[in-house]
Write a structure and sequence with these properties.
Helix content is 24%, strand content 35%. With 393 residues, it is of the alpha+beta class. The chain starts with a strand and ends in a 6-residue tail after the last helix.
């Protein structure tokens, strides 16, 4: 399903003017600093606020078109919405909260449908508990399940990890990966944390002051100047994907094919088959103009210098093509001069294996058959109007 968004909205001094089109399934990350318009966009898609002009289309269905005079009501848009706070009903147990999603849209929930979503989110042991007895991460998983039982055509997640501490965020991320990889519907994910975007996104829309300043797949966007300005030197680096060729139990490493080269990474939690996503931080890379020998560094990727630009008065950013994927290294201006770095020159990129710890993520979506329930017909938005008027216990 393709998401097509072209929207304008003025709120006081803030003017939103955005356009993007993404083919799903997968996870579209809306990334940018606070005040860039991320939440406004998802509220416009959901119909919670009215655009000044534009259009919103999901596949062949038009939800809003200012020219054609189309404005589908919130409750008829079939959109699942999960907020920063879970907004569970305190008088209902987890099972009741889950089933309320289907009840609100008049859909009968099959036992297999509920069981499938419960298993997908790992909340089997929580069904008889009340929200007050759940952790923040558990509450968000229940909110996700409730939204899915509305049988939405798209899932909107507005910074679902923002209210959680670091440990709870790490607990919830694998479940978000499962949703990304297995659902047959697209997910729009709002975040100002680039670490979450690196781990989850298949497509990124970078926002600043109500405008789209970059968009594309995560590998392409990771190299763009607007993103570099936002993430700073600590998060600066290329995101690449490759295929696992072999695991080395004796060394605890896995061999990953990237471009025309091979990269050894920590193998913990990695399956033998499929793709792996790796973020290579620019500050961790070392460049050589000759084939390296006699070094403890386990990775040396041969490539061609694709571009070199001044990052500051003292540093340069060097982009290296390694046979398709591109890496980004940060070197001092003096080193750049001494090495005679120039576009088109053969170059070797040295990567310490230990520097990759914590930057290896599953690359989605997978090719597994998606669950039937989330793509079934019917459903409505799990939004303010939908959940605010819970019935008495």
């Amino acid at each position: 399903m393709t998401i097509d968004v072209q929207l304008k909205k003025r709120r006081g001094a803030f003017a939103l003017d955005v356009a993007f089109s993404v083919r799903g399934p997968g996870l579209v990350a809306l990334f940018g600093p606070s005040g860039s318009g991320k939440t406004t966009i998802v509220n416009l898609i959901a119909g919670l606020i009215a655009p000044d002009e534009g259009c919103v289309r999901l596949g062949g269905t038009t939800l809003y078109d200012s020219v054609a005079g189309i404005d589908v009501p919130v409750e008829a848009r079939r959109i699942g919405y999960v907020f920063q706070d879970a907004r569970l009903f305190p008088h209902l147990d987890v099972r009741g909260n889950l089933l309320y999603g289907a009840k609100r849209v008049g859909a009968a929930t099959a036992p297999g449908e509920l069981a499938e979503i419960v298993a997908l989110l790992g909340i089997e042991a929580l069904l008889e508990r009340r929200p007050r007895g759940l952790s923040g991460g558990e509450r968000q998983r229940v909110a996700l399940g409730r939204a899915l039982l509305c049988r939405p055509r798209v899932l909107l997640l507005d910074e679902p990890l923002a209210a959680l501490d670091l440990a709870r965020r790490e607990d919830l991320l694998p479940y978000l990966e499962r949703l990304r990889d297995r659902l047959s519907i697209p997910i729009v994910y709002v975040s100002h944390q680039f670490e979450e975007v690196v781990r989850l996104a298949t497509h990124v829309v970078v926002l600043r002051a109500g405008k789209v300043v970059a968009q594309g797949d995560i590998a392409a966007v990771s190299l763009t100047a607007p993103l570099r300005e936002m993430v700073g030197s600590e998060g600066l680096g290329a995101v690449i994907e490759g295929e696992i060729e072999a695991l080395e139990p004796d060394t605890g490493l896995a061999r990953l094919r990237v471009g025309t080269g091979r990269l050894k990474i920590q193998s913990e939690g990695i399956a033998l088959t499929g793709l792996v996503r790796v973020q290579l931080l620019a500050r961790d890379l070392i460049l050589a103009v000759e084939p390296p020998r006699g070094l403890s560094v386990r990775n040396a990727l041969a490539g061609t210098l694709a571009s070199i630009v001044a990052d500051s008065d003292r540093t340069h950013l060097v982009e290296v093509d390694i046979g398709g994927p591109k890496l980004l290294a940060q070197v001092t201006a003096s080193a750049s001069s001494e090495l005679g770095l120039s576009v088109g020159r053969p170059i070797w990129v040295l990567v310490k294996t230990v520097s990759l710890r914590g930057h290896v993520y599953p690359a989605g979506p997978t090719r597994e058959p998606p669950p039937a329930a989330p793509s079934a017909p019917g459903g409505a938005a799990a939004a303010h109007e939908t959940w605010a008027d819970a019935p008495p216990p």
